[in-house]
Design a protein that fits this description.
61% helix
Length: 196
């Protein structure tokens, strides 16, 4: 006998393959039917439902836009307030700078007045300048001998003690001070006498 005669075909292999193919096909059919069943189970939206969904979406968009506009208005209002406040500060700083520049002129005018050199038209002009600065900008000269010493208003360059005084006060005015309202432009430079 030859080897060909001993060969016996395996009949069981083919049916297993065909059986497996059949099972795969059957499961595929079931899956396809399941999908169609799931699609059939999904509720269909009516025109009214779609319109209501659209209205809800539009209302949400409108609420968001209204919130954006409100936030923008608040931001703008804050910007306007900050701008006005900063503008006012810059205005005040400008006035202070001009007044500070004029202090040396006012000091010279005060010295000339003390020595009697400020008579006639020149004296009138200086008086008018000082009145204008006080009226329009609140610039006031301060500091005199005998005034009570205040470290926030006066700059003490000298200090003496005496048994005759009970409180610190100005014994000598070296240079007058200037203030604009409550704001000190330049403190008065003074000599102070204190109790022992």
């Amino acid at each position: 006998m030859t080897n060909d005669q001993n060969f016996v075909p395996n009949d069981h292999e083919e049916p297993e393959e065909s059986g497996q193919e059949t099972a795969d096909q059957h499961s595929q059919v079931n899956e396809d039917q399941g999908e169609s069943t799931d699609q059939d189970a999904a509720p269909q939206l009516t025109e009214l439902d779609e319109a209501l969904l659209k209205v809800a979406e539009l209302e949400e968009n409108l609420a968001r836009r209204n919130a954006d506009v409100y936030n923008l208005q608040q931001e703008y209002n804050g910007y306007v307030k900050r701008s006005k406040a900063e503008g006012r500060v810059q205005y005040e700083n400008g006035i202070t700078k001009v007044l500070d520049t004029l202090l040396s002129v006012l000091d010279d005018a005060a010295l000339a007045r003390e020595h009697g050199d400020l008579d006639g038209p020149a004296g009138t002009i200086v008086d008018k300048l000082e009145q204008t600065l006080e009226t329009n900008f609140g610039l006031v000269r301060y500091g005199a001998e005998g005034d009570e010493f205040d470290p926030e208003l006066h700059d003490a360059l000298m200090n003496e003690t005496s048994a005759e005084v009970e409180t610190q006060h100005i014994a000598q005015l070296i240079q007058p001070g200037y203030r604009q309202g409550d704001k000190v432009i330049r403190p008065a430079r003074v000599g102070v006498i204190s109790p022992e």
